[in-house]
């Protein structure tokens, strides 16, 4: 690993102008390409104290052995040169969108004497009309098969066409009416070209006029009692409408636009693009990338625009490009797109209406693509095995940690403090063994004390279960099961405990295990900000490679623990806000509680009512009224608390009835994100 100061340019050498720079390693290979409005300011950021750099940036500058730059006149030129160099050198530290295929287009070769409809991939050719791209070639063939009965354009290759012309016999499509057979001169070149033009017009969205013409012809044929011709036209109309259904209208104003959405986490990002032409979604494509560098959403959007339009012809750039975040600065990118198209391009974030709604659909597709990618990655046995081995090597464990437990603390400004425990076995979730805890030992916010309490309670239960069963278990693990065959709660120890946090949380977890006399369970922490792995008694963290499957597994475990903790915390908070002192009145059901609130308007007014007034509520007798009055008097708060969610005065707070570490298994809910100061 190189010392960046050994190749740092001297002060004043770097120009304060736009340009593109390259970092090279000791073998002169380009490992990173970047652009800058000011080369001097940008490159200075790479030569700070290594401790202040992002881990991925730190790895890049210590891998590099030299840096060089090229000055350009404008930011647009810098953007173009950056893209060219990324394509040429394929630097390992740049964002790379993994697209395992070239997306197919429906192409009509209008540059030939007899235009041909076909599937095309790769670079676009001059004189060819393109529609798409499509996600799969079969989607194109399905559409073409429906349209050929109405627009029987040639689809055969040059070899088949010449052979049919030589023999005087058309191919099968010519016999069944799905080709006008220009090869045997059933149709002239001019008429066949006109047929191809109509096909292109229909694909471009100009469908209404043509359908109305066919419907009129069908009606005229029926009126003239040409029923076979009318039936054929009816079937043609049905085929066209079915083809149109495959490209449903999503924007009413016949918009030509590309919509780009990004879903990301700390390691990877998924990009989805919807191509809308003539108000219809004509194609969809997507990429997944490793976030090799520390990159923001707007930078991911910029890279996606380069990937999408860098090698396309100008007509592939639509009038409007809708994105979730604008590149910074946006002017050079917009100017570059305008140059590519040859006319003005609107690059913006949709704010309202149909376009914003469609962008939300694209965003959901991106999130689903990222989740599917992670699911495929996590379900691979070889990948999971490699991840566990990497964790064992990094943490210096005797064997791979087949059972991992992760703990996270969640609260909102110190209120409703709870904790979660999630379990992964052999790299996969064991949701039936998830547990959740209420923090009972103290009030307020203290993540370190909370972690100590949770670890203590969990492993105290483990020691109790171990004492019940003894050291002996049979080969099926029956010693760890109840008499009815169910696994005992907390009976299985993990090989590795992961805590969400850094050195203080790790020290608290280790101290709890030491106090219980447990010395055969490894402990580590995963810090959120820099994704560093902390070990007890180590002053420096373990930094796993960002492409490491071991780091990916630890992140999945940590994120699942956070999701589970914050879901429980929000559930408790919502339940507390909905609680009422009437909940503690024995024998008072939901119907009569609602009747009381409806009659008096609020708990406060009910508290000030007399027993006789309470008896006026249907279904409330004197004994019940006395019980209600006594319960409300006992629950009267000294200082009224205000429900911050609704603004209403809260007369009481829900008692602690969940049992803390009772160990009841719970199902995983919908993933949540952190909001405000909630964690």
UniProtKB/TrEMBL annotation:
Region of interest (Disordered), residue spans: 641-679
Name assigned to this protein: UvrABC system protein C
GO molecular function: DNA binding; excinuclease ABC activity
Biological-process GO terms, alphabetical: nucleotide-excision repair; SOS response
Main location: cytoplasm
Keyword DNA repair: yes
Primary role: The UvrABC repair system catalyzes the recognition and processing of DNA lesions. UvrC both incises the 5' and 3' sides of the lesion. The N-terminal half is responsible for the 3' incision and the C-terminal half is responsible for the 5' incision.
Native species: Streptomyces brasiliensis
Domain GIY-YIG: 16-95
Pfam families associated with the record: GIY-YIG, HHH_5, UVR, UvrC_RNaseH, UvrC_RNaseH_dom
InterPro entries (UniProt xref): GIY-YIG_endonuc (IPR000305), GIY-YIG_endonuc_sf (IPR035901), GIY-YIG_UvrC_Cho (IPR047296), Hlx-hairpin-Hlx_DNA-bd_motif (IPR003583), RuvA_2-like (IPR010994), UVR_dom (IPR001943), UVR_dom_sf (IPR036876), UvrABC_protein_C (IPR050066)
PANTHER family in alphabetical order: UVRABC SYSTEM PROTEIN C, UVRC/OXIDOREDUCTASE
Places the protein is found: Cytoplasm
GO (cellular component) term, any one: cytoplasm
Family: Belongs to the UvrC family.
Domain of life: Bacteria
Record key words, sorted: Cytoplasm, DNA damage, DNA excision, DNA repair, Excision nuclease, SOS response
Lineage, opening ranks: Bacteria, Bacillati, Actinomycetota, Actinomycetes, Kitasatosporales
UvrC family homology region profile domain mapped to chain residues: 259-513
